Amino acid sequence: MKAMIYRHHGEPSNVLALHDSREIPAPGSGEVLVKVRRRMVHPIDDLMIRGIIPLPIPESGLVPGGDGVGTIEAVGPGVKLSSGIAVGARVGLFDAHGTWSERVIVPAADLIPIPDDVSDEAACQVMINGITAATLLREAAASRGAAGEGAPLLVTAAGSSVGRNLIALAKMRGLKIIATVRSKPSADVLSATFPGITVIDTSDSDWKERARAVYGAAPSVAIDPIGGAMIADLLDVLADRGTLLTYGGMDHSPSTVSSIALTVRGLTIKGINTPVAVADLSADQRVDDLNDIFDMVRANASSLADYRMVPLTDAVKALSAAQETPRRGAVLLTSEA
Ligand SMILES: NC(=O)c1ccc[n+]([C@@H]2O[C@H](COP(=O)([O-])OP(=O)(O)OC[C@H]3O[C@@H](n4cnc5c(N)ncnc54)[C@H](OP(=O)(O)O)[C@@H]3O)[C@@H](O)[C@H]2O)c1
Questions:
Q1: Most exposed of 43, 92, 120, 291 (fewest Cβ within 10 Å)?
Q2: Other Cβ atoms within 10 Å of 53 Cβ, number
Q3: Are residues 101 and 216 in the same domain?
Q4: Nearest ligand 1 atom to alpha carbon 323
Q5: Pocket around ligand 1: residues whose beta carbon is below 6 Å from it?
Q6: What is the pLDDT of residues 258-285, one digit of tens each?
Q7: Are residues 15 and 57 in the same domain?
């Protein structure tokens, strides 16, 4: 069984290595063994391997990977064989650990049955990132009222995988969206994927004025994974009583926030961590979100079609490919054994 593993933090090409073992693990109580075929490369994988987001590394090493799609190979004692959870079923994994391996043991609660008409490649792109988009839109809906129901939502790093899922779900719900990207080439790629949406390039000096004016009302909610200097810019762009939902830190530099602007204009900043937010949902809400996400996949095939596949054993190459700009789509790690 092949897996990519690291025992020290550092440059991925120095610390990430192939580990091959004859042993196939057996699932314990409440667990399931899944043969994983596809998993997405996420920015957090690179940050964790480098130790920028440090996780303690056990002596046996750490296998990256928080999501994936594959087939159930074995079911441990005590697992309820219902809702598509049976040997041979095709499933997605959220929020799993160690999926950069040909097989992984996960709690049965991490399994998401995949509809027959949704491909492994599409399903893989909406596990963490589709669920994150649905979570962010739920938070946005709860926050929008304060600054005006009809006002647009602003989505930054809109060419990212989460950004594309956000745009596709928001379009399906008839929401007004302003999509921002950091360069003209990225704007061109995103406009080609979503014809007709409003794309603004933040390297243009007047981007903030345009974002406030384009729909005749400033955005009520901004959804941002960049952080750094972008935070102060987004607070400038928001309508009074608006909300900034922050869900990442791709710019690692510290953010400056004016407490005076927050106070006088009644602005809110809220951090969103998807696994934490999903843990608070009812079972019905989770099912509704997944149904919406799979409907979005069916309605927006083009936004998920531009992926690249790299063999699991070439994970270092995949990490570099995932950093290329402009963003054209996901990088998927594949294994067939
Ligand atoms: N809070 C949560 O639970 C949660 C869950 C999932 C993801 N996230 C976070 O969401 C973010 C996006 O993840 P993803 O998988 O969607 O990423 P992704 O598909 O790899 O896309 C990242 C893209 O964002 C753009 N970008 C990168 N750095 C930027 C910067 N400093 N300023 C502006 N744009 C920048 C680039 O697009 P261009 O090359 O086109 O400019 C880059 O390709 C990450 O920070 C991730 O950690 C958080």
A1: 291
A2: 14
A3: no
A4: 43
A5: 42-44, 128-129, 132, 157, 159-162, 181-183, 186, 225-226, 247-248, 250-251, 272-274, 322, 325-327
A6: 999 999 999 999 999 999 999 999 989 9
A7: yes
